[in-house]
Structure formats: structure tokens, C-alpha cells
Amino acid sequence: MKKRFLALALVASMCVSLAACGNSGSKETEGTAANSSASETTASGQTEAEGDPVKGGTLTISLSASPSKLDPIHYSGTYESQIIKEVCDTLIEYNSDLSEYVPALATDWTVSDDGITYVFNIRQGVKFQKGKYQDGREMTAEDVAYSLNRSGELSDSNRLSMLDKAEATGDYEVTCTLKSANSSFLTALTDGGNAIVPKEEVEGWGDDFGSHLIGTGPFAMESFQLDQQAVLKKNADYWMGEPNLDEVIFKVITDSTQAANALQTGEVDIAMDLKGESVQKVKDNADLTLLETPGLHVAYVYFNMEQGPTADIKVRKALIEAVNVEEMVSSLYKYGEAQNASLPLPPGSWGYDASLESKVPGYDPEDAKKLLAEAGYGDGLTLDLYISDTEVRQNMAVLLQAYWAQVGVTLNIHASEWGTFSEVAMSNNADVYGMSWTWYPDPYFFLNKLFSTEEWGGIGNGQHYSNAKVDELLQKALEATEQSDRADYYKQALALIVDDLPGLFYANENVIYGVDGRVHDFIQRADGTIKLVTPENNVWVTD
Amino acid sequence: MLKTILKRILQSIPTLLIVITITFVLTRMIPGNPARTILGPQASAQDIAEMEIKLGLNKSKLEQYADYMIGILHGDFGTSYVYNRPVTSLIAERIPNTLVITLTSLVIAIFIGVGIGVLSAIKQYSILDYIFMILALVGVSMPIFWLGLMLVNLFSVQLGWLPALGMGSMSKGIGDVISHMVLPCFCLATIPTATFARITRSSMLEVIHSDSIKALRARGIKESSIIWKHALKNALPPIVTVLGLQLASAFTGAILTESIFSWPGMGTMIVSAIDNRDYMLIQGTVLFIAVVFVVVNLLVDVVYMIINPRVSYDSKGGN
User: Fold this and answer.
1) Domain interval for residue B139
2) Does residue B312 fall inside a structural domain?
3) Touching check for B220 and chain A: CB below 8 Å?
4) What is the per-residue pLDDT across B146-185, written as a single tens digit (0 to 9) for each?
5) ipTM over 0.85
6) Contacts of residue B41 in chain A, CB cutoff 8 Å?
7) Which residue among A149, A392, A433, A497 has its CA within the 20 to 30 Å range from the CA of A232?
8) Distance between CA B165 and CA B260 in Å, rounded?
């Protein structure tokens, strides 16, 4: 009996202790699908579109985690939004290089001078996919107002929190009133979380709507098996034109090595999130294409701005000067999967200001030692670094440990899976934490989230950065309606942030896909969103 | 015997209560908060607070525990935070998939493992015996994760004989289903096969050197009949004990195997439940595995009583 009990306890504790070695670190960069505007530096990877498109066939895409909540208002990961955005449409979209908004379910729109009222003209003749509670009827202004209000009130992630109300002011006209001027509204509308859905289906299915998602998109949900796959069938009546593909399968493959293997065996046609050696494997295989685009991504270590030694700007400067960023990035990303960075905003964002790069201290270990001595740490100091347990983060931590040891700083590394890591990072309890950030190219989604005082307690600003002038500029940028004015404010804010040296922003990772040679006319987007049918492309496959 | 079984069932109740409590405490001790994990990195403090209320995590731990216990007494094992569905229905949906590979691999393991064990015992200290026992030693110490990826690399990527992952579909025929099962079952069977081989060998050795077997030989009974009929039967009890343990641990082994092969069973569900801090689902699945453990052990004891009537669990009388 005693032995059996011990065995039971062991099973219980084994299951739980898996938490300490789980593989969800990847969540870090999968928070939200990043869509957005203007980015001159963003090139797009693309597969050949030559030849006559072939109708029919199946395209299989790997997803790194299982979608579980496909109701737009409940989704939380990019792997979920990929499916939502094939089944549903949003009011507006971004074009493939994310340089401008393009009409989708709205044909055009106007914004009032005070930035509070938005009026959208809704496309006519768009049909919903057939479902249990409606028979493929036309989408109307009422559906748009219903979907937006629903998201405004119920979205788990408050994806439309700036919306006061949306009203159908005509058969094909919707008027949205915001609580206060907020320029991130249009960007938010491109999010799968704010997709347009039919009321009957939502109310008919209730909590189960996600498993029976219905929208106006190019593909309709055929079946959804948790942790296994989602099968989509083409919507022949799609308003933009008939999709070339008959079927799209999103297959869940959590292990990234296995995703690369499945690409090689032909079990999937597109493998996302390739890393390390898998990148080389795809490069070496003549049947596969490696698509690579600079991502809207920043990898960084963030210093505690309020407590401990790093509250002193001299210490922060010393820690930055102690690291040879170029050397570190080239050894971390051996296959060229990232570029060196210096600012907390990706170059693909329209708020980026290259002239600020020179303000970031360069590699100077001698000066670093001097600064540490001045700050009272001539005899050295000990810091705790917190990271999630992904390979790239762990390698970074080891390099950082070596660089900082050269200037007399002892670094203790604490690597844990995402849930544990985020708990520490959000609570202002880490001397230093290392992670990455990726979202829309609208600077709001980087600068506000990482540096606004309002974001204390979120993982963006878990280190309690606070600068009244920065807060003021960020607010002004949010209220301005002209993008050029907004960019100006963001650049000013960015300059102040760089002066405060809140962290070491070292790399911009690329979006990397492995694609089978049979896939044609596929356009890779810097935000990592997969769009199979757009005004610019209509993916097709050969056998 | 019925009385003994009933008694054993009653005895398992406190054990399960302790398991429930330990699991409850341990899941709450994992750092990380389900609301934060569900909402993703960009969630604000306010979003998280709202989600906590929705999930009932704003209540005190004691209240949560009481709610959970009362629920169990009413047959309600809670609702998964992430999937928003009753834990029992999620488990019921996954368990057939896990049983398919665990049972298949155990059957393979029994036949191959016992066969090897018997052969090794008969040919003790022969080259064959050494080869088998070295293989068995390698087998029990094999890191399953590594083995799985190597098998995929060889049989799927290089040779292209078998699919790398996933579960086949009956709509594509039985061949598709079986081809998808080969690698995961091979992986899952490795450790049990080696274990059976080792235990069978040592148990058989003990038996074939016993006086009863010598007596059979003296009576001139055919050697093959002595080995497979008489000796093996007497060597069975330790093998059955190990079988029980292996069945239960195959469930935990499935956690790794299913993750590698994207096999939609209990294992992948437990891993994602832990990653997502889906407390209800973690508690439900651990409890389920505990119940399996208890039931299997009970069955083992019953089988034990049948194959070896000298064993009695009835402390009072005996037979």
C-alpha cells in the first residue's frame, strides 16, 4: 500500500513538475498577430507566381501550438488568428508589405476632425458562409455594428477598448464613436479579434461558437479537432473571387524539429517559425524554399528601473557598454536569422528614427569598469537575469554572463518556461529580464506597451520605466490623427527613452518559413500573418 | 475474494483523496497565473484581473478547494479554462487515442520481451543471451525523446517509409492508421520490452533451476513443454506485477511520445494544460491517471490471486 501511494504521488508530482520543463516559451513572440501600416524597409518573401494558376488541391500549414479558442473575442495566439483570418474578414486590411490600409468589408471610410467619429461604407453583396443558424445570407451594416460592439464589450484582450459604440446608420453604413481620439483604432480593426461575424450563429452556438466559426472569408471551417488540425474548405462565393485552393489544413506540430521534418517528408507545405539548424536543412533541400523577411520584432534585456543596482543609470550604461552586440548576435543567430538592433522599435515601424542609433553606447568594457567603480561597485556586483527557457534566450544569457563577467558583474541565470517567467517579469522582481516583443508596426504597440507608466504590471513595462515627458508625448501621439504628426511625437519620445538607457535592444529576428516547391503565389508578410487570398495574390498548388 | 476486492476499493478512497489534495496544492504552487497565460504577453493588468474573476481565481485558495471537492462529489470535475469544456468530456475524447498506442505497445512489449527473456534464460551465458541483455540494458536506459527524433529522421526523412507525425485517418484506410502508429508504438514499447525481457529472464532462471522443474525433466517430459508450459507459468507472478506497473507508466510515457509525434491523446493534452496553467484540466488528468494506477494495481492483485492461489490479501483467514 505504502509503495503504491508513493508511486501515485510520484505520478502526480511528475505531471506537475513537467511545468518546469514545458515548451511554451515560444508563446513569448506569439501574443498577437501583428498587422499594420507603412514600413519602407519591409521586404516580402514570395514564392513564384509564374504560370497559369491551377485550381484545386490542398495546402497544409503547420501551427506551433494548438488553437483552442477560435471565437474572435476569445482568441489569444497568432496560431488562432491565422485560422480566424482565413474564415472571417475584417472591415479593413493591410496590404502585403504593410505599407497601407486597403478596403476589405468596408469599401471606404472617413474620420472626423476631432478623431472621434469614423464612418464606414460597407461592401454590398457579401455573403456569410452557410451555417446551422443562417443560410448564407448577406452581410449588412447591422452585422458590422453587432460584431464591433461585441468585441468592444466582451473581448478578453480588450482589442477594441477605445470604441464607445458602433451603429448601423444606413443599410450599408456604420458609424463608430470612440471614447476619446485614438489613432490605433484603424490598426485594431485589422485584427482577427475584430472580425465580422453573424449574430444568429454567435447566439445560436453560444460558448461553442469558436468550434463552428462562420464568417465571410475565403475558406469555411469544415472540421476542427483540438490539438490535431483545422480543416477549411473553399468558399466558392467569396466576394473577392473564387479561391484557387480547394482545401487548407492547419496541422498542429508543437515540436519545431518535427515541423521541419514534416516539411521534408511532404506532410506539410508551409512550416512556420523555423529556427536554428532547421533553417539550414531547408536551405540545403532543393525541393524547398526558405522565405525570410525582417520581422516586426525586437529582442532585448530590460533593466529594473526602480529597484536594485540597475536603478542607477551609470550601472545600466556600464552593462550596455560591456556587451559586443554585433559579436553576440552573429553567434546567437548562426544562420542569419536576425539583424543587429539598437533601438526598442523594429526598423519596419514608421516611428523608427535611424539617427538615434548613434546615441546608444557602443562596446567599451574599459569605460564600463570605470562607470561601475563610480557607481560604487568597484568590487563587483551580482545580478539576477530571468528568461524563458527557449534555446535562443538561454544562449543569449550565457553570452551575457561572459561579457558582464569581464567587467566584474556576476550574473545568475534563471530560465523557466513562459508562465513562470512572465510572473516574475511582470512583478518588477527581476534585476534584468530578457525577452522579445512583436506586434503591429504602429509605434503605439511598442513604445506605449513597453514604456508608458500606465503599463506597469503588464509584461511590457514590468521594469517600471516611467518618464512624465515620455508619457505626455505618447498621449499626444495617440490623439493626433495625421500619421506624420504621430511619427513626430513617437520619434521625440523614442529619443527620450534612448537617453534613459532602459535596456539593451540587441536583435530584430526575421520571419522565416520553409515552403514546399509546389506552393505558388504565396506572399510572406513581416507580421507573420498568412493570407492566402488577397487583392494581390491567390495561392495555388501543383501536384 | 470478492470481499478482498471490495476492501481494496474502499482502501483506495483515502489514497485518491490525498492525490486530489496534493495535485490541487501543487498546481497552485506552480509559478504563473492561468489568466496571464491565457491572455498572452500583451495583456494589461486590467485584462488579467477581469479574466481572473471570470475563472474564479479571485476567490481564496481554500474556497477554490472546497468548490472543487464539492464539484467532484457531484460528479463535476470542472471546466477547462482554455478549452471552455468539461474536463471529463475532454478526457473521454482523448483517452481512446492514448489507449490505442499504449495498449498496442504493451502487447508488442509482452510478446517480444517475454520471448527474449525466456530465450535468454534457456541459453544463459550464451552469445545470444549477452546480446539480448545488452540490448535490454540499452532499451531501459533509452531517452525516448531522442529515440523518437532519430527514428523519424531515419524512417521518415531519409527513407520516406513512414509518416513523421500525426494520427492516421480511417477514411484513408487501415494502412494509413497503422503506418502512423508504427513509430510512436515502437518508441513507447522500447522501455517495457526491455523491462519484460530482464524480469522474465531472471524469473525464469529461478524457476528452471528449481526442484520441481528438475523433477519434470526426470520424468522425461519434452523440454519445450517444460519451458513454455510449466516453467513460464511459475515465472509469471513477477511479470504480471511488472505488467501492472508498466501499464500505468505507459501513460506517463505517452506524455513524451505523444508530444514528439503530435499524437492527439492524453499526453499532449497534459502538456498543453500545464503550459497553459489550466488548473482544472491538470487536476482532472492527474486524478484520472491516479485512478488508472489504482485500478490496474487492483486488477494485478486479482490476477495474482488467480495464478498463484497461495497469495491472499485477506489478513484474517487465508485459504
Assistant:
1) 87-307
2) no
3) no
4) 898 899 989 998 898 998 888 888 788 888 889 999 999 9
5) no
6) 27-28, 31, 422, 435, 437, 459-460
7) A149
8) 8
